[in-house]
Design a protein that fits this description.
It contains 5 helices and 19 strands. It is an alpha+beta fold. The protein has 2 domains: 136 residues, Beta Barrel (OB fold (Dihydrolipoamide Acetyltransferase, E2P)); 114 residues, SH3 type barrels. The strands form 6 sheets. A 5-stranded mixed barrel has the order 1-2-3-6-5. A 5-stranded antiparallel β-sheet has the order 14-13-12-9-15, with no helix packed on it. β12 and β13 form a beta hairpin. It is elongated. It starts with a helix and ends in a 6-residue tail after the last strand.
């Protein structure tokens, strides 16, 4: 709902514009044939359209796939309104894109996938949407940790010439075996595995999942800022020695759970019977045997 309200405010900014704000504003109803990336589409007559007011990462840069997928889900195969008639030096049409009352550029900014952009040398006048985009960006966190407000509304000549290189972090794997997935979540296919102690570079974080500089995503709960100790391995959200044994003189003591505590679930059937869903590392009752693929989520399928 908030997206629709904001988009309505953006669209309202088109009315009453001074003549030099956006010359010969034209709204054309077209169908989107395909999406090239996070700020470029192709309509059914073959014309490429560059979305005005935003700058998305290029192929190979942090956030490229996520921004592209978001725009695809929003407009591909659908009828949209193009607002604007200018073309750029690459013979692409320049236009704001609206779909069912929603401003596509604003949606991408609010998702933290693109940054607002305006450069007067592109040959078109500044629009009130540009000011709104910049204002909105000041309240958004970019998924790659970039400064959303680097190009302020007052700096009308600025262009987003810096790359979408993320703030990188060096991490170490604390799990015996850690799956690499194609996206941030267990619903994405596995691409490979990392081993205990492997050193990796993280370029982005989304919902607890961390993107690697080499490609792919892993669960952040199995990454640490410092190299793990030799002979230790991760079990869920803790790190414990791989081999422990009491002194010979120590009596054997059977641990007991404190009063009212939930003991670990014996198997996935017990998990689903108790909570009716997968269990995450850190939740009461979780243990490593429930998470066979070491991705931080146990019992992903209902075994009942």
């Amino acid at each position: 709902m908030i997206h629709r309200i904001f988009s309505a405010l953006v669209l309202a900014g088109l009315t009453g514009l001074p003549a030099n704000a956006y010359a010969a504003v034209k709204i054309e109803n077209v169908e989107v044939a395909r999406v090239i990336d996070g700020d470029t589409i192709v309509i059914t007559d073959g014309t490429k359209v560059r979305l005005l007011g935003i700058d998305a990462p290029e192929r190979g840069e942090c956030g490229y796939s996520t921004a592209t997928k978001k725009l695809k889900a929003l407009v591909e195969g659908k009828t949209v309104n193009l607002v604007g008639t200018k073309t750029d030096k690459y013979d692409r049409r320049l236009a704001y894109v609206d779909i069912a009352g929603i401003d596509a550029g604003a949606e991408l900014i609010m998702a933290g996938l693109v940054r607002p952009r305006y450069n007067a040398t592109d040959g078109y006048g500044r629009n009130s949407r540009d000011d709104t985009y910049f204002s909105l960006a000041g309240h958004i966190t970019h998924i790659c940790g970039l400064d959303m407000t680097k190009y302020t509304a007052a700096n009308t000549q600025s262009d987003s010439t810096d790359s979408y290189s993320a703030k990188t972090e060096t991490k170490y794997v604390t799990a015996t075996s850690l799956n690499i997935r194609s996206g941030p979540g267990t619903n994405h296919p596995k691409q490979g595995k990392l081993s205990y102690g492997d050193k990796v570079t993280v370029v982005a974080t989304t919902d607890g999942w961390q993107k690697l500089s080499t490609g792919g995503w892993v669960s952040g709960i199995y990454l640490a800022n410092s190299a793990p100790r030799a002979g230790s391995s991760s079990t869920g959200n803790t790190t414990s020695p791989a081999t422990t044994s009491p002194p010979r003189s120590a009596p054997s003591v059977k641990p007991t759970a404190p009063a009212g505590a939930q003991p670990p679930y014996q198997n996935c059937t017990a998990v689903w019977n108790a909570i009716g869903r997968p269990i995450k590392a850190g939740e009461l009752g979780f243990h490593a045997k429930l998470d066979r693929d070491n991705d931080g989520v146990g019992c992903e399928q209902d075994p009942r």
